[in-house]
Design a protein that fits this description.
45% strand; globular; Methylamine Dehydrogenase, Chain H; mainly beta; 361 residues; single chain
């Protein structure tokens, strides 16, 4: 249901945009003449330049310079290596007027990293990653680029890399013990730190180094560990399995990166759906008492009190999925029970939790 609503909104926005701007539409260039789709994506404006990619048949990076009214492709031959970009997809990240992007090559399995300010002359080769590699999670933080790729101590695992846009300033990160963060996922910035999960443990990058957050980890890797908060001035939270994954606990992360366990009573299956109005909204599936139930709950960040928001019959077809919505005071939740999906919303209180279109009581 949530997907239907989002699709309808997208169609409505596209229709209104097309209707009101119809007279102002001007064809700049037919990049792929003839019938068929150009498969345009990654459209983003930075300064006076518009960046986008075209799949025809490989992914190509294009730039439209608004100032001089010029459209051109970055490539096809890029500096530093031989070959033509032939990536299934390009990974892009922007820092001020600089763009870092990755591209595969037609004559090898290599993935190459480049930096450009949008002109052909400025495009510089940074580094070639190992064969068969891919570059994921390209993020800008503290004026540097961070990405996930292999090439660390264990060639079979991906690690976190850092780049300032130069070859000499591109390296994989190690903590003070000389250990990398393997297979990092779930990135989020919080209070001038870049947080993520590695092997079920919370890590972060600050101004100077890579750090493992001490004391809170799980013996079995948990890829679902995520950090939730609404601002740098409020605490952040994550839910983590412990006791050989028989239980879950809620851990609060303070702005200074110190941590404290605030609840250890959660069941075997629990996860966070969102954080709004100083309330952590999460779900818990109860297997202890029949009939089994799936419950929406909230944790009051000020008092530590946990409140039941709604309860549902739990079956194998029960599931919850949140839509993190910025700029509103509620978390929207897709609730699926026995194959029937409804959209719910919650502000963290029982009276403010209801199925969309149904008044709460």
């Amino acid at each position: 249901m949530k997907r239907k609503i989002l699709n309808l909104l997208s169609i409505a926005v596209l229709f209104l945009t097309t209707f009101f701007a119809a007279e102002a539409q001007i064809l700049i260039k037919d990049i792929t003449p003839g019938p068929g789709d150009t498969n345009m994506s990654f459209l983003e404006k930075v300064g006076n330049k518009m960046y986008f990619t075209i799949r025809d048949p490989s992914s190509e990076l294009w730039v439209y310079d608004l100032e001089i009214d010029s459209l051109y492709m970055i490539g096809p031959v890029l500096p530093g290596v031989d070959g033509i970009p032939n990536s299934a997809s390009l990974t892009l990240a922007f820092r001020d007027s600089l763009l870092v992007f990755s591209a595969g090559m037609s004559n090898s399995n290599d993935i190459n990293l480049y930096v450009t300010n949008g002109s052909l002359e400025s495009t510089q080769f940074i580094k070639t990653m190992p064969k068969g590699n891919s570059i994921d999670e390209l993020i800008v933080f503290n004026n540097k680029f961070y990405y996930v790729a292999s090439g660390g101590p264990d060639i079979y695992r991906e690690v976190l890399w850092e780049s300032d846009g130069t070859a000499s300033g591109t390296k994989h990160l190690l903590n003070v013990a000389g250990k990398p963060a393997n297979d990092p996922i779930n990135f989020r910035t919080y209070n001038n730190r870049l947080w993520f999960t590695s092997d079920g443990r919370p890590w972060y990058v600050d101004d100077t180094s890579l750090q493992l957050a001490d004391g809170y980890y799980n013996n079995t890797p948990n890829p679902l560990l995520k950090l939730f908060t609404s601002s740098d001035t409020e605490p952040a939270y994550f839910i983590q399995p412990y006791n050989d994954e028989e239980n879950h606990r809620i851990v609060k992360v303070n702005p200074d990166a110190s941590m404290v366990v605030v609840d250890t009573t959660l069941s075997k299956t629990a996860d966070i759906l969102g954080y709004k109005n100083q309330h952590l909204i999460f779900y818990e599936k109860n297997y202890e008492v029949s009939p089994y139930t799936a419950e929406l709950k909230s944790l009051n960040a000020n008092t530590g009190e946990i409140t039941l928001l709604a309860s549902f019959p739990f079956t194998n077809g029960s599931d919850f999925e949140s839509a993190w919505t910025e700029g509103v005071d509620k978390v929207f939740i897709s609730v699926r029970i026995d194959g029937v999906e409804d959209l719910w919303s919650s502000d963290g209180s029982p009276s403010g939790t209801s199925k969309m279109g149904v008044e709460s009581t």
